[in-house]
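User: Fold this one for me? It's Proton-coupled thiamine transporter.
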Amino acid sequence: MSKPNNLVVLTEGAIIVAAAQALSFVPHDLGVSSIQIVYGLIPMAIYALRRGLKPGLTAGLVWGILDLILKGFSSGGFLNPLQGFVEYPLAFAAVGLVGLGSVQVKNRIENDKNPLGLIILYSGIGFFAKYFLHFIAGGIYWGAYAPKTMNPWIYSAVINGGSFIANMIMMLVLLVVLSRVFKRFIITKN
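Assistant: Here's what I get for Proton-coupled thiamine transporter.
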């Protein structure tokens, strides 16, 4: 593998952030709860696996800032600066932790081995980190929205844990469907 051109990595990251943000406007609530499927996690995970940890974290951070500006302020998702920072730039950047497995996944693909287990593992790390930050913010800042008879931390764990599980299921389904084209998505030509 040759060293990638920084402009190519930056351009790819901008396209991925735009795609992730566009996908966030697709309705994604499950039932009457606040459990959400976030379709933008898929392109972000692929980008982090393709380009590595630093570009993945950077793209996630930019996506979080963009989502805060375009949706957070207008939807009531912004309560105060600390909560906004934790739930938008920080939580979205955490998705870039998927990039921790970039080298291992690429090695598996190049050696004609199945990378599915590693992709699930590292996607789980990135997705868990995102929803753990939402869980913390949920317990601290969103506790007033919990049912009166429920502990706010349990409510936050149910909502954010449910969202984590729903997004991991979405990732698993897409991994099975896309398993034949991993090489095209993850291995770079530059």
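One thing worth pointing out: The radius of gyration is 17 Å.
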